[in-house]
UniProtKB/TrEMBL annotation:
Organism this protein belongs to: Paraburkholderia xenovorans (strain LB400)
Signal sequence, renumbered to the chain: none
Quaternary context: Monomer.
PANTHER family: NUDIX HYDROLASE 23 (PTHR43222), PHOSPHATASE NUDJ (PTHR43222:SF11)
Pfam families attached to this UniProt entry: NUDIX
PROSITE patterns with a match to the protein in the record: NUDIX
Keyword Hydrolase included in the entry's annotation: yes
Name listed for the protein in its UniProt record: Phosphatase NudJ
Amino acid sequence: MKPETWLPHVTVAAIVERDGRFLVVEEHTADGLRLNQPAGHLEAGETLLEAVVRETLEETAHPFAPEALVGMYMTHFERPGNEGVTYLRFTYCGAGGEPDPERALDPDIVRTLWMSAGELRACPERHRTPLVMQCLDDYLAGRRFPLDFVHTHSVGPKQ
């Protein structure tokens, strides 16, 4: 019997700051309502930058223009009955445009909020994961890597 292939889940997240407040989503999770940066899974065929732009728009209706990579994070969550799941998260910061009032948010998103770092720090029990604050703290500490820090190799047609 062939052993199972282990694959981590690749996710992206966006940090959008406006007037000292940060764009977050309140979303339904298996653990109840939680706060998170706009975030989601990398889909087949897209780059990390395309994914973070798409996920931010889908979850907040705000267009997003990435300016820098804040960091890459790996975390593992145990799940009852299996080996759990490992996530590789790429967090970007950038500018958010005005929301499209006609655009519906992803079904699990209850609402978007603008919260200060202090407000977020005061409610860790409401965070989707500890990475919410870790990524924000790294951003506030000035961690920035150029967008081309992660190279995307595109495989074209065979010749």
